[in-house]
């Protein structure tokens, strides 16, 4: 996966097996940050994020990844950045969905830590895989992509018990 390769090139050590990749790095404060990628099916990866730093390192996304959908749930900590000149914060219990290609300025973990789960969706791959099995899922992925595009590439969903329940089951 191109995202994993990009992050590895930016200082994360890589380990793992075929269906799971672990990226980790020792931070300036001596603590270790990690991202654990689980391949769920073609086009969908589940990532467990544990950061112990203020600094965010993101992959340089390319033409072939800019239409991917990234859904983030913050369990603990906070993520912040500027998008289109406006400040965006993702706090505990909140969900953010964005197109991977959206440009973020000054990304940071303002509290110095962040724990969350991320779902990466490659719509083209998922639609090929699920089209014959679950055609309604293909429609939902198209709907989600279009909805995120209408929101300038980012949607923030404040903490809702029904949504937190789903994400908490993933932890």
Indicate the topology:
Elements: H1 2-9, E1 13-16, E2 20-26, E3 32-41, E4 44-51, E5 69-83, E6 86-91, E7 95-99, E8 105-108, E9 114-121, H2 123-130, H3 135-150, E10 154-157, H4 161-170
Verbal overview:
With 171 residues, this protein is α+β, with helices and mostly antiparallel strands. It has a single domain, classed as Sandwich (Jelly Rolls). The protein is built from four helices and ten strands, in the order H-E-E-E-E-E-E-E-E-E-H-H-E-H. Strands 1, 2, 3, 4, 5, 6, 7, 8, 9 and 10 form a ten-stranded antiparallel β-sheet that branches. Helix 2 runs antiparallel to helix 3. The longest helix is centred in the C-terminal third of the chain and has 16 residues. The two termini are 23 Å apart.
Q: What does the overall shape look like?
A: globular
Number of helices: 4
- Multimerization status: single chain
- On the 0 to 100 scale, the average pLDDT is 88
Output the CATH topology: Jelly Rolls
The SSE order reads HEEEEEEEEEHHEH
Largest sheet: 10 strands, antiparallel
CATH architecture: Sandwich
Structural class: alpha+beta
What is the CATH class designation? Mainly Beta
| % residues in beta strands | 35-45%
* Gyration radius from CA atoms, angstroms: 16 Å
Please report the distance between the alpha carbons of the first and last residues: 23 Å
How many structural units, i.e. domains?
1
**Uncertain residue ranges:** none
Helix content: 10-25%
Number of strands: 10
The CATH superfamily is identified as Jelly Rolls
């Amino acid at each position: 996966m191109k995202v994993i390769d990009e992050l590895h090139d930016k200082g994360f050590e890589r380990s793992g097996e075929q269906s799971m990749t672990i990226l980790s790095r020792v931070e300036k404060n001596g603590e270790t940050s990690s991202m654990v990628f689980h391949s769920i099916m073609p086009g969908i990866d589940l990532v467990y994020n544990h950061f112990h730093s203020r600094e965010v390192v993101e992959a340089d996304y390319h033409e072939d990844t800019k239409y991917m959908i990234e859904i983030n749930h913050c369990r603990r900590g906070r993520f912040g950045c500027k998008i289109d000149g406006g400040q965006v914060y993702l706090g505990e219990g909140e969900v953010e969905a964005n197109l991977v290609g959206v440009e973020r300025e000054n990304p940071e973990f303002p509290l110095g830590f962040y724990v969350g789960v991320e779902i990466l969706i490659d719509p083209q791959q998922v639609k090929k895989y699920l089209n014959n099995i679950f055609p309604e899922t293909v429609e939902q992925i198209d709907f989600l992509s279009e909805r995120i595009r209408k929101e300038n590439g980012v949607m923030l969903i404040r903490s809702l018990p029904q949504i937190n329940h789903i994400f908490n089951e993933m932890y």
